[in-house]
Amino acid sequence: MTASTGQAGSPFNPDKHRVGRVLCFAAHPDDIDFGAAGTVAAWTAAGVQVSYCIMTDGEAGGFDPAHRADIIAMRDAEQRRAAKLVGVTDIHYLHQRDGYLEPSHEVMKAVVRLIREVRPDVVLAMHPERNWERIQKSHPDHLAVGEAVTRAVYPALENPFAYPELADAGLEAYKLPWLWLYAGPGERENHFVDVTDHVDAKLAAIHVHVSQHPDVAAMEVTVRQGMQHNAARAGLPEGRSAEAFHVVAVNGPDTIAGF
After folding, report:
1. Which CATH number is 171's domain given?
2. Which of 50, 137, 245, 246 is 20 to 30 Å from the Cα of 169, by its Cα?
3. 73-96: pLDDT as tens digits
């Protein structure tokens, strides 16, 4: 996999910690592509199995009134084409209403169900904390994804008595090793992935979401500059590009249940 480099405080060591399966959560089609498609491309190129879960259908997105009648089908098609460009074909939807997403027990139970089905090494999700430097990263649906996934990961996911109907259906409790959060406050980001070799794939995936981009050129400049800024923050050589994450160790060798 493309090299990772962590700031002080990052618990993840790519030379030590194996990643074989990843489950990514997002609020809308295109969120993962903006936030983590370079890292996803690096994972899939290394043989990692990556799945997506999009919580809404993205029906409130876009800028062209002519797309209203077909926007859900359009955005689904865009997401599936974009995902294929970075090696992902397994996509799930929770079909929550765009703009109304909440970290409800309905959503949390669905998250627990899917994580128990997939049993990933890493759950990647949007950050539950607001980014005041660039509030556009902190759409209320984005924050709701982060809160719902974080609540689901502990304790419900690993508690056989939480949502007992899931265990009754054969979905046994599961202790997740890693939670990676994206699109959060810069001060929380403690881990960077060098995605220089996958910048073109990431941008190609973003370009697929044509229903969302009234100014494609400006979007691409912003994305490139953001990745270059992340690389500089990570101490990578000039000319490199990186994606940034807040990595949390959920269960490791030293984890004590309930503490």
Report:
1. 3.40.50.10320
2. 50
3. 999 999 999 999 999 999 999 999
